[in-house]
Amino acid sequence: MYIIGGSASLSISKDLSNQLQVPLAETIAERFPDGEIYVRILDDISGDDVIIVQTTYPDKNIIELLLLKEASRESGAKSITVVAPYFGYARQDKKFQNGEPISAKLMAQLVSISAKKILTVDPHKEHILNFFPINAQSCTAIPELATFLKKKNVDMVLAPDKGALARAKQTSRIIDCDFDFMEKTRIDGSTVEIKPKNLETKGNNVAIIDDIISTGDTMAKSILELKKQGTNKIFVSCTHGLFAGDAIKNLKNAGCDEIISTDTIISEFSKVKVTPCIIKKLKTKSN
Ligand code: R5P
Question: Which of 2, 121, 176, 268 lies most in the core, judged by the most C-beta atoms within 10 Å?
Answer without folding.
Answer: 121
